[in-house]
Design goal:
The protein is 38% helix and 21% strand. The chain is α/β, with parallel strands linked by helices. Strands 1, 2, 3, 4, 5, 6, 7 and 8 form an eight-stranded mixed beta sheet that branches. The structure holds S-adenosylmethionine.
């Protein structure tokens, strides 16, 4: 069954893609294609940092909310197969054309906010970057965390960035914004309490969980996107047995 909220979000992202596709993907690095590509290289390094090295002739990677494949393009030489899913058909279509010279990368549209096109225990590494921060529902994000756990190979890693709540005022502001704007725009996302986030990741079946609250600022993140100081990075490992 297609969730009305997911269809609404897809329509908004399609509209954004038609307006200015580079801008709505990387709001601080969209003015030239070169800048956009370099921001992908920079962010891809950040996403892979500290993880065990992948084997480029064996390992596979999957991005949730891939846009046109800005990050997958930058990771092309690190993996044998690269997959991206996105709810926006405009993003996927543009991306397939943009990545014509990258035959290992496959972009797929997801219409129901899941990863049902992938088998269980198939993927070496799953990640998501600047996507969950735009999803206005804890349940929908949780669905992706559970799906990532399902499709990962035993011992595989899931790393994602989302946003966290630092005070009660912020919590109220965010819940109000989600209530008022969650269905109208495609930018207002759900902010997590750290304890709830950890509990949710564990409830999805991950036993090893590491959560880092990163205080990013423009000087150490030249292409920094999202709201400074509110990024939280979660790394979870599927049990090896
Ligand atoms: C800001 S862009 C980032 C794209 C990519 N992660 C990058 O960094 O280049 C956010 C992307 O998430 C996608 N998206 C938003 N909600 C989604 C959902 N529920 N499921 C899958 N993709 C989603 C949008 O269509 C858009 O392409």
């Amino acid at each position: 069954m297609v969730d009305g909220r997911v269809r609404g979000m897809a329509a908004k992202w399609d509209e954004a893609a038609r307006k200015n596709i580079f801008y709505y993907i990387a709001t601080t690095a969209w003015k030239s294609e070169e800048e956009f590509i370099n921001s992908g290289i920079y962010d891809a390094e950040k996403i892979l940092s500290g993880l065990p090295p992948f084997n480029p002739s064996v390992d596979s990677v999957l991005e949730i909310g891939c846009g046109i494949g800005r990050l997958l393009r930058a990771m092309n030489d690190r993996f044998a197969a690269l997959y991206g899913v996105d709810i926006s058909s405009e993003m996927i279509e543009y991306g397939r054309d943009w990545l014509r010279g990258y035959p290992k990368v496959q972009l797929v549209e997801t219409t129901i906010n899941d990863l049902s096109m992938f088998k269980a225990n198939q993927i070496s590494f799953v990640y998501s970057y600047i996507t969950f921060q735009h999803i206005p529902s804890r349940n929908l994000i949780t669905k992706y965390i559970a799906e990532a756990q399902r499709v990962l190979k035993p011992g595989g890693y899931f790393r994602f960035q989302t946003l966290w709540i630092r005070s009660s005022i912020e919590l109220l502001k965010n819940r109000l914004a989600v209530f008022l704007n969650g269905r109208k725009d495609c930018f207002t996302g759900y902010f997590w309490r750290i304890a709830t986030l950890e509990k949710t990741i564990r409830a999805c079946g991950f036993k090893e969980v590491d959560i880092q609250m990163k205080l990013e600022c423009k000087s150490d993140a030249p292409y920094g996107v999202g709201q400074p100081e509110s990024h939280v990075w979660c790394t979870a490992r599927k049990s090896p047995d």
